[in-house]
Design a protein that fits this description.
Largest sheet: 6 strands, mixed
Number of helices: 11
Radius of gyration: 21 Å
Order of helices and strands: HHEHHHHHHEEEHEEHH
CATH architecture of the largest domain: Alpha-Beta Complex
Strand content: 5-15%
Number of strands: 6
Oligomer: single chain
Mean pLDDT: 92
Length: about 300
């Protein structure tokens, strides 16, 4: 029996459904973008090894293109969990459980199971943080995650088994005898090879960087499977809003250029062939140097309206 969809759910179906005139991209595009990436990164061949490869993911690309100094500091510092970051992790776990849940769908039970699943799994890096939370902060976290999971249930269409859903789907691609490795982990993937829809689930606001992240995912999936995905989407759980775009040759080529540019910068910094540049940007808000970095201080003043942008 078909479930009647509400307007928000139907809007997602309309955006992500297969258009009547859709055709997969020509096979030669995969070889073209692969060649373009290999040529752009040819200067790095032989500088890294399979035993000590250069690893590149979406976060590395975003940080190095934002501010090289912040990128270096970010890689040196151990990741520290906070309520905002763990909220997204628990929400994703809740949605993962939801897709395989048997029995009545009660959001509170799913959220409790998600928190327990992460807290009791020593392989989850957030486990220790969750266990250490005082009762009132854990209750606040539960409420925030409950809101995200409830929004997903109410606003995202029910996912059918025939859509072949995969949660936390990992893919990687390597160059030069596995000496440069591009890796990705996608929140939600629907559809089979050559027709996949890659979706990022966000508990915060949507930003242009999210679009670039998805294009990187599309590039990695294209090179790994030799078949481009069909479509990309960022879905805000807070706003019940989807930003989607079809995967085209132009999008893949744009991702190659961005990925290659960032990889060359990352390699420079790893090999210490030059000092990192400093650039003001939104990363200044949480950079440990934001009280002593001239570029960061200027950006934060301009962002707050305390200084004119001459």
């Amino acid at each position: 029996m078909e479930i009647e969809l509400n307007p928000l759910q139907q809007a997602v179906i309309d955006a992500l459904g297969v258009p009547a005139d859709w055709e997969p991209l020509p096979d030669h595009i995969v070889d073209d973008v692969e060649h373009q990436l290999a040529v752009a990164l040819a200067p790095l061949e032989g500088l890294f090894t399979p035993e000590n490869p250069l690893r590149v993911n979406k976060h590395h690309i975003a940080t190095v293109l934002g501010c090289e100094e912040y990128h270096v500091l970010n890689k040196q510092q151990a990741f520290a969990w906070n309520i905002n970051t763990v909220r997204g992790t628990i929400a994703h776990k809740g949605i993962e459980l939801l897709l395989n849940w048997r029995g009545p769908i009660i959001p509170g039970e799913i959220v409790d199971a998600a928190i327990t699943s992460v807290a009791e799994n020593p392989r989850e890096s957030a486990s220790g943080f969750l266990i250490s939370l005082p009762a009132h902060e854990l209750a606040e976290l539960r409420g925030a995650v409950l809101g995200a999971v409830t929004n997903f249930l109410e606003c995202f269409p029910p996912i059918k088994p025939q859509w072949r859903p995969m949660v936390e789907y990992s893919a990687s691609y390597s160059l030069f005898n596995k000496s440069i490795i591009f890796s990705s982990r996608m929140d939600l993937v629907l559809g089979g090879p050559g027709r996949k829809v890659i979706i990022d689930l966000k508990t915060g606001r949507l930003t242009p960087t999210h679009r670039d992240d998805l294009r990187f995912y599309a590039l990695v999936e294209t090179l790994r499977s030799r078949q481009p995905p069909r479509s990309l989407g960022s879905y805000s759980l807070d706003e019940a809003r989807l930003e989607d775009e079809a995967v085209t040759e132009g999008i893949l080529q744009a991702s190659v250029r961005r990925t290659a540019n960032a990889t060359l910068l990352i390699a420079d910094l790893v090999l210490k062939t030059r000092q990192p540049d400093r650039r003001g940007g939104f990363q200044c808000r949480w950079c440990p140097l934001n009280e002593e970095c001239a570029e960061g201080i200027k950006f934060l003043k301009q962002a707050s309206g305390d200084e004119d942008d001459d």
